[in-house]
Amino acid sequence: MIKVLVVDDHTLFRQGIIHLFAQMEDIDVVGQAGSGAEAVTLAERLAPDVIVMDIMMKGTDGIAAAKLMREHGVRAAIVLVTMYREWHFIERARKEAHVDGYVLKQDAFEDLVYAVRAVHRGGSFYSPTLASELGLTDESGATLPALTERERQILTLIATGYSSHAIAERLFLSIKTIETHR
To answer: How many angstroms separate the CA atoms of 129 and 81, rounded?
Structure first.
């Protein structure tokens, strides 16, 4: 079970995320906060595995809160959820606060779930809609095609360390299909 702390100063958004996470069998929301300062306190007390946090909040913003958490020894992976897609926000989050994921509020909820699972496994996750800004383009500058839902499932399981046989059994696919995606 992945223990998650949800942080956003907009109550409706925060409660919506919590409600959606409640439908996931492997995610347990252990706390919620409406400010960066409150998030730092709760992160130290609750020891979540993953913190899902907005960037722009009154008082201590999400990046500053993440930086404080790191300074206070909080070991949780941090995923920032924001409407800001500008490169300077991403760089500041990575360099100053060492966040593990960056998801845009315009992304699908499934992207946030993938982000939480990926950072919990020690990986990182950046919004698929930021592909071109992060250099995921071909020589012509065209964005590489997005993965299908099934391809994402397979690649996630591969990255987690599952064998082709185990993935095939879990997803009811042939081993050959899994090997094609490897």
So the answer is: 13
What are the structure tokens assigned to 39, written together? Answer: 């998030």
Indicate the pTM of the whole model: 0.73
Close Cβ partners of 166 (under 8 Å, ≥ 6 residues apart)? 157
Residue type, 76: A
Pick the CATH number of 2-138 from 3.60.21.10, 3.40.50.2300, 3.40.1190.10, 3.90.1150.10: 3.40.50.2300
Per-residue pLDDT tens over the stretch 148-158: 667 777 877 77
- The yes/no answer on whether domain 147-182 falls in CATH 1.10.10.10 is yes
pLDDT 10s digits, 112-163: 999 999 999 988 888 877 755 555 444 444 444 456 667 777 877 777 677 8
φ and ψ at 115, to 5 degrees?
A: -60, -45
pLDDT value of residue 160: 65
Q: Any idea which residue has 């690649």 for tokens? A: 155
d(CA 132, CA 39): 32
Per domain, the residue ranges of the chain are 2-138, 147-182
